[in-house]
Design goal:
With 327 residues, the chain is mainly α. The chain is built from twelve helices and six strands. The chain has one domain. A hairpin with an 8-residue loop joins strand 1 and strand 2.
Length: 327
């Protein structure tokens, strides 16, 4: 039963997970740098080296918070199923970070593997989801096995990859995840789907701790292991909370970014494309074009990375607010 005690316990777990994450990341970052798991920060003068694989810290902080929660309350069984799926996404991203996914295959694009394989990760949710889908202007539609075997796994996979593609500037993917999960948490409270909060709040605590180190100037990058896990958390929450349409609107800036990239790549197939822009002497971004959402605003105005990231946040806040007003 979701009462005052449960609310206090969940808030305590969020804070505890945050504190654990803050403490955990310090030695983790030293170890990652020592072992050579680093990448260049492409939007800083001099391109400094920054530790990667920050998703490891998110995963351990979340699991520690879940252990505390499980020892102090009757945690809904669905939380463990969610955790099982998140770990799958985490390890899939980690493998991609370390050795690359699809690199040894004949596919010319490893993205094909990133799309197909994660579809199967969410199958354990089949027994727990409602196959009714709310479609705006139409109403509730019963999709049956189409929802279970196609819509649900594709929705979660797409959510994971959208966050991964939106991970461009310091703090962008983690900040976006926190914004959307915050709106989802409030919506779950409103609709009464409170069992999901037993997973959501400790995960948010771990992600906020990570953002403390990932925000500009970043001391760590999330890696695919972090981005895929954060995106999957959004998709799973949407599915279990019957908030598919709501979350779709929240994700609109990320969807627009994906469509822009897809159009760009299809229109210049076979041509060499710049993956990163440059920075001038003042630290402002100099994008090669305006063909992704990340490059549109610094292409129009002189903006540094911090300013551009804040604009990306504002777009997600606006889309999430629109979702709240619409639904």
């Amino acid at each position: 039963m979701y009462n005052v005690y449960t609310r206090l316990l969940l808030i305590t777990t969020l804070l505890l997970t945050y504190i654990i994450g803050i403490i955990l990341f310090k030695p983790l970052l030293k170890k990652l740098r020592k072992e050579g798991f680093t990448g260049r920060d492409m939007y800083k003068i001099g391109y400094p080296s920054v530790p990667e694989l920050g998703g490891i810290g998110i995963a351990f902080a979340y699991l520690t918070g879940l252990l505390f929660l499980s020892s102090t309350s009757i945690t809904p069984s669905i939380v463990y199923i969610i955790t099982f799926i998140l770990i799958f996404y985490f390890f899939f991203g980690l493998i991609d970070d370390i050795v690359g996914v699809g690199g040894a295959l004949k596919f010319t694009h490893s993205e094909i593997v990133k799309i197909i394989v994660p579809i199967f990760f969410s199958f354990p949710l089949i027994r727990y989801v409602d196959t009714l889908l709310y479609v705006p202007f139409i109403g509730t539609v019963e999709l049956g096995f189409i929802y279970l075997l196609l819509f649900m796994p594709v929705y979660i996979m797409v959510s994971a990859n959208l966050i991964n593609m939106y991970s461009y500037y310091n703090g962008q993917s983690a900040g976006t995840t926190i914004i959307i999960l915050s709106f989802l948490a409030l919506k779950l409270l409103e609709t009464g789907e409170t069992d999901i909060l037993f997973f959501l709040l400790p995960f948010m605590g771990a992600t906020i701790a990570f953002l403390s180190y990932n925000v500009h100037p970043a001391g760590v990058f999330p890696g695919d292991c972090g981005d895929m896990m954060m995106g999957a958390a959004i998709g799973i929450t949407a599915i279990l909370g019957n908030l598919e349409a709501f979350t779709f609107v929240c994700l609109l800036p990320l969807i627009i970014n994906f469509l822009m990239v897809a159009i760009w790549f299809l229109s210049e197939r076979g041509e060499k494309r710049e993956k990163f822009g440059k920075v001038d002497k003042e630290g402002n971004i100099d994008p090669p074009n305006a063909k992704t959402l990340m490059w549109v605003f610094p292409h129009i105005w002189s903006l540094n990375e911090r300013q551009t990231t804040l604009i990306m946040y504002v777009l997600v806040i606006l889309s999430s607010t629109a979702a709240w007003l619409l639904f």
